[in-house]
Amino acid sequence: MSMEYIWCKDAVGARAMASGKISELFRRAETGGKSILFLASGGSALKALDESVYLPKNFAIGLVDERQNVGLKDRNAYLLSLTPFFKKASAKKTAILFDVPSSLCATGEYFDNYEDTLKNWRSNHPDCFVVVLLGMGADGHTAGIFPMPDDSASFNALYSNERYFVVHSYGAGRLKERITVSISFLKREVDAAVVFCTGQDKISALKKVVSGAVLPHEMPAAVWKDMKQAYIYSDIRL
Q1: Interatomic CA distance for residues 127 and 35, integer angstroms
Q2: What are the residue boundaries of the structural domains of the chain, listed by start?
Q3: CB within 8 Å of 226: residues ≥ 6 apart
Q4: 194 touches 204 (CB < 8 A)
Q5: What are the tens digits of pLDDT across the range 19-77?
Q6: Whole-structure pTM over 0.70, yes or no?
Q7: Does domain 3-234 have CATH number 1.10.10.410?
Q8: How many other β-carbons are positioned within 10 Å of the β-carbon of residue 25?
C-alpha cells in the first residue's frame, strides 16, 4: 500500500500533473501487455481528463459512481461524456461499459446491469490493470461514498462487502441517491488511484486524510491510504 501526496503551486498545475500520471499509468500497463480498466468519478476530478491523456489500445472506460433520480445533465455518465478524453476514446471505438441514455432507468435496474457488465468485462480480462480517477469533497467524501461519522457499523455493513457496487442515499441534497463502488472494491481490485483535489475549502479534510487522523466512516477518503497505490495532486499546501 502506498499513498503519495504531490503539492502543486496552483490548480492548473495539479490538473496537468494528474493528467500526466494517468497517461504514465496507462503506458506502463500497456507496455507490460495488460489490458486497462479505467473508472472515473464525477465532479471536479473530471477536469483531469483533457486531450493530453494518453489513449491505450486495449482499454475500457467505466464509472466509479453514478447519481440517481436526477436529470441527464447531472449524471456522471453525461458529464464524463463531455470530456475531451472521452470524446477521443469514443472516436477510437473504445469499450464503454455504460450507456448515457440508459442511465436514466430505475436505480435497481441500472445497478444490476452495470455491475454485471463490469464483472463480465473483468472475467474476460483477468489480468487487467485497474486505474481510478477520484476527487474529494470538503466533508471528506470520495467516489460518491459519504461519511457516517456516528455509525461505523452501518458504514462498514454498506460499503465493506463483496459487491463491486452498492446503492445508497447518504449523499447531500438533491444528489444524495447514488450507486458507488464499495470500499472493498477500492482496496482489493484497484491497482492505482489518481486523485485530483483542489480548493482551499478542502484543506481541513485533506490534512486529516493525508495524516491518517481519520477512519473511512469519518471521512471516506481515508481509504486512499489502504489502496495499492494512490497519487494525490493538489494545490493545498499541507
Answers
A1: 7
A2: 3-234
A3: 1, 187, 216
A4: no
A5: 999 999 999 999 999 999 999 998 899 999 999 999 998 899 989 988 777 777 888 88
A6: yes
A7: no
A8: 22
